[in-house]
């Protein structure tokens, strides 16, 4: 056999092997439903950085509603991850971090309009008892500056607003720690215990989920969270979730100010465990 033909034969076989492996991964992944957990921070009149523009956010939520997605809260997710319930094929979780005022003013009305559940992880030291008429809602950098200056009413939601959302049956308020600071291992237990106690006391509900600020955590953080009574621990690690991944390192997907086409693509990829892993292996 001539050398060029040998080379062609070699690469044909090699290509076939890779195609078979790819097909095998895709086929096997179809049997493993996954739950994408969507991560948001702000919704405002226009998008920037980690802020989703109101127009895009409404389109994203309308897509979920129109396509029959089932949105879940932390109790639902715990049942699925612990094997006590089965996830529907179109199951998704919507999460918001920090507790910013624009979540109440812009995000909540859209969620209520489409009857979609969501989880709001709030920094309890930022939540206040005041009321204020805010004309223009600040963006992320401005919000952080206002919090640093103690001007919480201008940046964050109030306990009254949290209670109203919780009472709607759509919004599940959970912990994003008490201070949102980079604490050493000796300080984390007190911080998350304080946050849990405030949410349970002020809202008359169970607080059993915590989302780590900046996604920073280690085995000691996990141990302290379990000791404090938390059962679901959320990260910023990119990926999706199945019963195999468990409840202690829940992955999420940052959404951002994207249109429906890109939004649909993210949902499609991360609703399947094998496809999500393959995609992240190639593009992460």
Indicate the topology.
Blueprint: H1 3-29, E1 37-40, E2 42-44, E3 51-53, H2 54-66, E4 70-71, H3 74-81, E5 91-98, H4 101-113, E6 118-122, H5 140-148, H6 159-167, E7 171-175, H7 188-203, E8 209-211, H8 219-228, E9 232-238, E10 250-254, H9 260-270, H10 273-283
Parallel strand pairs: 1-5, 1-10, 2-3, 4-5, 5-6, 6-7, 8-9, 9-10
Descriptive overview:
Helix 3 links the parallel strand 4 and strand 5. The protein is built from 10 helices and 10 strands. The chain is globular and about 45 Å long. By secondary structure, the chain is an alpha/beta fold. Strands 1, 4, 5, 6, 7, 8, 9 and 10 form an 8-stranded parallel beta sheet that branches. It has a two-stranded parallel ribbon with strand order 2-3. It folds into 2 domains: 31 residues; 250 residues, Glycoside hydrolase/deacetylase (TIM Barrel).
Beta fraction of the residues?
A: 15-25%
Number of helices: 10
CATH topology descriptor of the largest domain: TIM Barrel
Give the number of DSSP strands.
10
Architecture (CATH level 2) name of the largest domain: Alpha-Beta Barrel
Main features:
about 280 residues; alpha/beta; TIM Barrel; 2 domains; 8-stranded parallel beta sheet; two-stranded parallel ribbon; 10 strands
């Amino acid at each position: 056999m001539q050398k060029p033909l040998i080379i062609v034969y070699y690469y044909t076989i090699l290509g076939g092997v890779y195609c078979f492996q790819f097909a095998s991964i895709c086929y096997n992944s179809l049997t493993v439903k996954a739950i994408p957990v969507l991560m948001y921070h702000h919704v405002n009149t226009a998008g920037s950085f980690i802020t989703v523009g109101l127009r895009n956010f409404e389109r994203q939520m309308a897509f979920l509603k129109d396509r029959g997605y089932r949105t879940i809260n932390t109790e639902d997710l715990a049942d699925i991850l612990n094997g006590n319930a089965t996830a529907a094929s179109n199951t998704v979780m919507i999460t918001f971090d920090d507790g910013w005022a624009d979540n109440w003013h812009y995000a909540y009305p859209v969620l209520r309009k489409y009857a979609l559940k969501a989880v709001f992880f709030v920094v309890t030291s930022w939540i206040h008892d005041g009321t204020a008429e805010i004309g223009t809602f600040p963006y992320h950098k401005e919000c952080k500056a206002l919090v640093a200056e103690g001007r919480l009413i201008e940046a964050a939601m109030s306990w009254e607003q949290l209670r109203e959302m919780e009472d709607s049956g759509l919004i599940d308020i959970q912990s994003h720690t008490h201070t949102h600071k980079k604490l050493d291992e000796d300080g984390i237990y007190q911080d998350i215990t304080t946050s849990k106690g405030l949410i349970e006391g002020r809202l008359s509900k169970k607080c059993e989920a915590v989302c780590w600020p900046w996604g920073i955590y280690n085995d000691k953080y996990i141990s302290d969270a379990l000791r404090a009574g938390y059962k679901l621990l959320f990260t910023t690690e990119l990926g999706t979730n199945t019963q195999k991944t468990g409840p202690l390192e829940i992955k999420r997907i940052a959404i951002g100010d994207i249109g429906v086409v890109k939004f649909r693509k993210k949902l499609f990829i991360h609703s399947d465990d094998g496809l999500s892993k393959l995609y992240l292996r190639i593009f992460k």
